[in-house]
Design brief:
- Strands 1-2 form a two-stranded antiparallel sheet.
- It is elongated, with a radius of gyration of 20 Å.
- 57% of the residues lie in helices and 31% in strands.
- It has one domain.
- It contains two helices and two strands.
- A hairpin with a 2-residue loop joins strand 1 and strand 2.
- Helix 1 runs antiparallel to helix 2.
């Protein structure tokens, strides 16, 4: 059950990071007319929704607790 404890620790870490670390993504807005192309590329950094971060955090705690209980 060591894998379950590891999975719980990873989920817990991801849940904590989701509250503070923004995820960058880029969008390409372009218009192509014949051989010419006009475009704008925008970059955004957004955090995961609080609900998703909370679910990751709780799932990590529960999975880690189950893994520790089965190992002990």
């Amino acid at each position: 059950m060591r894998g379950l404890s590891l999975l719980g620790a990873v989920l817990l870490l991801l849940g904590l990071l989701a509250f503070v670390v923004p995820i960058p993504h880029k969008e390409d807005h372009s218009l192509k007319i014949g051989d010419a192309q006009i475009g704008v590329q925008t970059a955004h950094s957004e955090k995961l929704p609080t609900g998703v971060a909370a679910i990751l955090l709780v799932a990590g705690i529960v999975t880690l607790a189950i893994g520790i209980r089965h190992n002990g």
